[in-house]
Amino acid sequence: MFGCWQPRNARRSRGSWAFALGLLAACGHQDGIVGVQPLGAAGQPAGGFLEEFVEPNAGWLSDTVLPGAATSVGDASGSARDGHWAELRFPGHPEYGANQQVGAMFVTQLATRDRFHFGTYRTRVGFGACGANEEAVMAFLGYFNDGQDHDGDGIVDDLEIDVQAACSAPRYLYLTVFTDDEEPPQGNRFRKLTRVVDFASGDTFDTVAPDSEQYGPARNDPLLHAPELLAPDALYELGFEWHPDSLRFFLMLGDVERDLWLLSGSDRVPQLPVQVMYNLWHPDTHWYPAEGSADFPTNDVVMHVDWLSFEPE
Questions:
Q1: How many Å apart are CA 122 and CA 249, to the nearest integer?
Q2: CA-based nearest residue to 49, from 59, 36, 61
């Protein structure tokens, strides 16, 4: 165990990161959070950690914004490794339209109070499902944005290492790495790369440039042809290995660790410590390769977290 558990209700102070998100970016990029994240110490605790989510503890902060949203830690589960897991519940609201309660300011979230740096992050998670015409994003990520341009490239740093799934299309996994993002009125400039993995076919798709939202086919990997992924409510071990000049995303298929994406180059990799987060939120459109408006979920979308480990570089 590590750190601090401190639930917060939907009435947030001006110091809250979710409030800052609402002020700065009511609607960011479809695969990013975008916004100021002032929480978290500048350095990380010495050594690694293993969080089993057996009981609430001082290392985690909770955000539950919408009516019916909830997070809990220590729930009994026969599927969890030690019999307990954390649950994040994004509430269904059939009265909401596609363009209502959009974006990360309406998030259901667990986030570490501390920030962590280079090393290997592993977690075992279960994703929820929703109707094909609906959408909620479920994410495991590292994130930091203090509104500054630390690397001096003229764009505000936005550091994200994202593993995301969409409740309407569990066959896809979205891997995104942000290094910069500046939303209006300051500008509309960003640097990010995304890979989409289609486990139904083994096909992968990449964004064509760091400043583009367009995708192109990458390659077919027969080792990633696993149509049973990502079955709702099943648990999967996945994560990323983060170094100053590379990021490797991976997922366990059976007893074998399979590479999903290797991103090389220090200019493409976040360099500052990040907070670790699990969250769910509603986008108003479906994600690539789907198109069109996405309804707010009618029923609750639930994400489970069995454990999280961090091993520093």
A1: 10
A2: 59
Options 2.40.50.140, 3.30.950.10, 2.60.120.200, 3.90.230.10; CATH for 6-312 is 2.60.120.200
Cβ atoms of 239 and 122 closer than 8 Å? yes
Is residue 265 within 8 Å of residue 245, measured between CB atoms?
yes
The CA distance from 131 to 295, in Å, is 9
In angstroms, the CA 216 to CA 77 distance is 40
Which tens digits make up the pLDDT trace of 57-96?
989 999 999 999 999 999 999 999 999 999 999 999 999 9
* Alpha helices for the chain (secondary structure H): 17-24
CA 304 to chain centre: 13
Q: Residue ranges per domain, the chain? A: 6-312
**Helix/strand/coil (H, E, C) string of 69-136?**
CEEEEEEECCCCCCCEEEEEEECCCCCCCCCCCCCHHHCEEEEECCCECCEEEEEEEECCCCCCCECC
H helix and E strand count, the chain: 1, 18
CA neighbor of 105 nearest in space, from 148, 60, 63:
63
Residue type, 221: D
Residues 2, 51: contact at Cβ < 8 Å? yes
User: What does the pLDDT look like over 134-165, one tens digit per residue?
Assistant: 999 999 999 999 999 999 999 999 999 999 99
User: What is the value of pTM for the model shown?
Assistant: 0.88
